[in-house]
Amino acid sequence: MDVVYPINPLFHGPTLWERVKNRQHLTHRDFFASVMAACALAAARARDGATGDTRRVADRPERTSEIFFAAAADAVSKDLSKARGLGYMRACGLLAITAIQYGQINTMHQYMGMYHTLAALQQFHDERKWPSDITVVELEERRRTFWTMYSLDIYCSVVFDSVMKSQENHSNVRYPSEINDEDLLLGTFDTTNEDNWLRGFNFTTDLYRILEHSIKRVRRTKPVRDDRISITRLLIADNIPEAQVMDSVVSLFYQLPPALKDYSLRQGSDKNESYMGFQAANIQATLQLVRMTLFSTSPTHDVNHKCDVAQHALSVFHDIAPEYLRAISTPLVYHLGGIGSILASVMEGLLCEISYQRVRRLLVSMADLLDGLESGLQPTAGASRNLRKRIDRIDRYMEDQQRLMRSVQPGQPPMQAQTLTSPYRGYTVPPPEGMVNGALPPSDQQAQIMDGMSMEAQYDEFQLPQDLVHDGAWPWPFGFAAPDQQMTMDMGFQR
């Protein structure tokens, strides 16, 4: 529960435990499916280190998660028209998230498709069409599930370049009430409590709504097809610059309560504080996804701007408390893949010595961050090692070129020696909430860099060979190559 719940709060905690205590998961097929799916996700994330080493169970079967996954998948009726109720939709959503955890993206698409089919059959996008006799608890569970799956759909569209099936303008579902599960049972409550961790959940949903429209802007910039007219260019104009959009997003962030803006605090014994910490970390991860998506709406960014965006995102992830990074788990790795793609595009273009050294340091920073994540995340094992190998290959090429230059011009100082003491090594990024368009070094630091190099070393442009930096040379998305596998087993509920 602690692994899944803070970021994917699809259950009402007290009701879940009461139903399990009464063994309803053995008599209600839809509830069984959703419980098994939640167990599959929790077991996968625990195995991948989300709970920390102190809570690992050494004698736990290695494939516990896959056993739960198979049980949940088997409980979902193959005839989806008969799979009525919240339980099956929730199960499919959790199975899709678990598939991402496994690195099995085809399986993720399968269960996302099943969820959207069930949602369409039951008109889940309009709460006026929901059953009239549901309890206040199920009402809140439905709202949490709807917006969790909306966010997941937008996430998949951004990260995996899939087609969005959800649109906020077509949705008539209220946000979840910002109230603790225990208070929800009392029946009288304030639906807007800024000190409640669900405020963070709802703000993250706001960010995904922004992402929905941002990714549409990105896709409108694709080349015009020659077999049709461009309706979007005819009827829709995007006059708001990306920097202004990001400025508005940061302004919304500033309005959050302090606990949801502090993502560096370590997890403590207080449950509500820990939930706030989980939400603060998830907000920051989503903010970086928004920043990178808005960044990609314009093809005109220079090398410095690309490095600024990547450096800012890496700085944020390095500052997030490790336990919260582990809880976000595998989806975070795809965020890093987006950063890597930005840096790879810099490496593929024209470079000077300053820009080369800067992007190299950012790649090393990413490898360091992966070192701390992949010790548990099975699908990403070896990602940092592969990235470091790629950096080493580029370093060897650069050293060979420097030796060649020295042999031709023996009086010139080595390029490597000039840059090893660059003041960029000590440069740190300003706090994320104070940054809108990316961090740039203060002018005095820039001056120090210029003073430490000759004019030729600063501005002479070169381009790395394509076999070192082409798309296939980089380990994005970090070797998620595990084949999609399905397991079968007997159903675990009573007939």
TrEMBL record:
<dbReference type="Pfam" id="PF04082">
    <property type="entry name" value="Fungal_trans"/>
</dbReference>
<dbReference type="GO" id="GO:0003677">
    <property type="term" value="F:DNA binding"/>
</dbReference>
<feature type="domain" description="Xylanolytic transcriptional activator regulatory">
    <location>
        <begin position="3"/>
        <end position="236"/>
    </location>
</feature>
<dbReference type="GO" id="GO:0008270">
    <property type="term" value="F:zinc ion binding"/>
</dbReference>
<dbReference type="GO" id="GO:0003700">
    <property type="term" value="F:DNA-binding transcription factor activity"/>
</dbReference>
<keyword id="KW-0539">Nucleus</keyword>
<protein>
    <recommendedName>
        <fullName>Xylanolytic transcriptional activator regulatory domain-containing protein</fullName>
    </recommendedName>
</protein>
<dbReference type="InterPro" id="IPR007219">
    <property type="entry name" value="XnlR_reg_dom"/>
</dbReference>
<dbReference type="GO" id="GO:0006351">
    <property type="term" value="P:DNA-templated transcription"/>
</dbReference>
<dbReference type="InterPro" id="IPR050987">
    <property type="entry name" value="AtrR-like"/>
</dbReference>
